[in-house]
Amino acid sequence: MPVLRDFRDFILRGNVVDMAVGVIIGGAFGKIVTSLVNDVLMPPIGKLIGNVDFKDLFVCLNGRAYASLDEATRAGAPVIKLGVFFNQVLDFLIVAAVIFFVVNRVTALVAARVPLSPPPPPAPETRECPECAETVLARARRCKHCGSALV
């Protein structure tokens, strides 16, 4: 079937496979950053500002008081999850910084890339006449010294 063949050809292109690998690695990296924010960075920050667990920072919109975000959620109360939002913003900032540094370094490496082969030497501007051995312009058809035809 032509559709399946076209799809196979599309999938097997190098840039599509590279993009898929990038998406998979990016997803795994995102999980690592989320764990870094939630499990490593936010607990000490919460401890420094008075034993606050950022996951439990919320605003209840129905006017009632709940002891925790889980309790408010189980009660079906409408809540603004400020702590979750702060964690997501920090996630984003870390990922954006890492991507910036990676792209910045790759761009610098590509800009400073040494060519694999040296550029070809420029064509000579002069040559020697085979009859009189005088120097003539490379584009000349006749020698200006002896008048012989140059090939």
What radius of gyration results from the CA coordinates? 35 Å
| Class from helix and strand fractions | mainly alpha
The whole-number mean of residue pLDDT values reads 85
% residues in beta strands: 5-15%
User: What is the makeup of the main sheet?
Assistant: 2 strands, antiparallel
Question: Residue share in helices?
Answer: 40-55%
Q: Say which CATH homologous superfamily of the largest domain is assigned.
A: Large-conductance mechanosensitive channel, MscL, domain 1
SS field, number of helical segments: 4
Task: Determine the CATH topology of the largest domain.
Answer: Non-ribosomal Peptide Synthetase Peptidyl Carrier Protein, Chain A
Order of helices and strands: HHEHEHEE
* Extended strand count: 4
Tally the structural domains.
2
Structural summary, described in words:
- By secondary structure, the protein is mainly α.
- The protein has two domains: 2-113, Non-ribosomal Peptide Synthetase Peptidyl Carrier Protein, Chain A (Orthogonal Bundle), CATH 1.10.1200.120; 123-151, no CATH class.
- It is 54% helix and 7% strand.
- The protein contains four helices and four strands, in the order ααβαβαββ.
- The protein has helices at 2-11, 14-48, 69-74, 82-111, and strands spanning 59-60, 79-80, 126-128, 135-137.
- The strands form two sheets. It has a two-stranded antiparallel sheet with strand order 1-2. A two-stranded antiparallel ribbon has the order 3-4.
- Helix 2 (14-48) packs across helix 4 (82-111).
- The longest helix is centred in the N-terminal third of the chain and has 35 residues, at 14-48.
- It is elongated, with a radius of gyration of 35 Å.
